[in-house]
Amino acid sequence: MKIGAFADVGLRVLMVLGAEPEVRLSTRELSQRVAVPQSHVSKAVTALSHRGWIEVQRGRTGGATVSRAGLDVSIGAVLRSLDTRADVAECTGAAAGDCPLVGACRLRGHLAAAREAFYAALDPVSVRDVSGPASGGAFFASIGLRTSTD
What residue ranges do the domains of the chain occupy? Predict the structure, then answer.
């Protein structure tokens, strides 16, 4: 199962912020740490803020921090919210053209059920579970994040 690019960026931002919940990071700093252009990170920060998963302070000393709800939200819920693609397969669209079977396709429903099963498998996993030292302390340190064991 492949998640959409926007959902991927959102998850990366939540994981980085979740690794140091008390630290406020600017979109520029987040962009560097998640290796994604700042414009994409800014859009993800806006979406995450609207959902209450991060708190944003504007201004010279501003930035984003993860909220308690953001630490506790399930990965399945994040993906359901941020991955807004209509279909798992490219049944319609300019890139692939419309599939001639789309009107009578019996596969689309099964693919939608498979996607929901994928999300359901991630429902027990929270952002807190995948952030911080337990999910790669050396990696988080390599991108400039302190860990509780440092």
Answer: 5-86+125-142
What distances in angstroms separate CA 140 from CA 17, 88, 89, 143, one per listed residue?
A: 11, 31, 34, 5
| Those residues with Cβ within 8 angstroms of residue 8's Cβ, 6 or more apart along the chain or in another chain | none
pLDDT tops 70 at residue 133: no
What is the value of pTM for the model shown?
0.81
Distance separating alpha carbons of residues 48 and 140, to the nearest angstrom: 21
User: Which distant-in-sequence residues (6+ apart) come within 8 Å of 12 by Cβ?
Assistant: 34, 36
DSSP the chain: ----HHHHHHHHHHHHHHHSTT--B-HHHHHHHHTS-HHHHHHHHHHHHHTTSEEEE-STT-EEEE-HHHHHSBHHHHHHHH---S-SS--SSTTT---TTGGG-SHHHHHHHHHHHHHHHHTT-BHHHHSSGGGTHHHHHHTT---TT-
State pLDDT tens for residues 28-46: 999 999 999 999 999 999 9
**Domain 5-86+125-142 class, CATH top level:** mainly alpha
pLDDT at 67 over 50: yes
The first and second tokens of residue 45, run together, are 């920060």
